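Weekly modeling sync, notes
Attendees: AB, CL, MP (scribe)

Item 1: holo prediction request
CL wants a bound-state model with biotin before deciding which constructs to order. AB pointed out that an apo prediction alone won't tell us much about the pocket. Agreed to run with the ligand included and paste results into these notes for async review.

Input as submitted:
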Amino acid sequence: MRLQISSVQNLANINRFLIFTNLIQTNLTTKIFGHEIEYFTFTDSTNEDVWDALADDIDEGFLVITDHQKNGRGRRGNRWLSEPGSSLTFSFLIKPKLPLEKIGLLSLLTGVAVVEGISQFAQLDCKLKWPNDIILNNKKVGGILAESKLIDNEIYVVMGVGLNVNEQELPPEISPFSSTLRCEKESPIQREPLLAFILNAFESMYNNKDSEWINAWNSHCIHLNSDVKFHHGNDTIQGTFLEIDNMGQASLNINGSVQKFSSGIIELS
Ligand code: BTN
């Protein structure tokens, strides 16, 4: 279920919690990403909305944003909780020109763009926890869900980003290990230009070589060369996180031998 109000958005004072798409677009320096935006006051999942919009032959860069995501999808089948009017919840379409085996790098690139966009707009020093948790002062403030489909021999990726921005309190089930940009900065942050800065950072790196995405990701990693617990299947392994390799795999030194993983959960020591 979703509600669209694009035609009345320019009326002043509808509700100070609504997203104003023109405020996103005036801050964009991109050529592709964010030029076409669909805004819903509420919806179930912006990832799902982008998939639905594919039926209308949308272009790369098409973006869906909502003020109130009611049924947000998280990684590993989890739910993503967000607060109406405070969180940033959006998804955009990528039609990548990458070989299939490198598609996973796009979510790492998005993590880099989120960290750099936040740094440039809000002067907050976020870090990345593999594969793409957004961390601030050791707490999770955001996450990324990339979904891909092969349709008529073409790869489509929907990149979904959830960021805790202006919430002043989080649900008790996530508050011990999560935070919000506002809580850490101790002042509110305008969501529209923040989103534009994230898209600007994404597009400028998207046009670079993927080896540069990897270097940028490693430079923002919170656990580079640190001892971590690594949960893989039913195993918990202790090791030193070395880097991500050119396929985005986690490279760990475990008892003197280098092992690579394409999935797993890092627990910071
Ligand atoms: C995670 O579990 O860390 C990733 C969460 C990603 C949530 C975002 S919010 C916008 C987009 N729509 C969804 O349903 N999920 C993603």
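Recorded for review: The radius of gyration is 18 Å.
Action items: CL to compare against the apo run; MP to circulate these notes.
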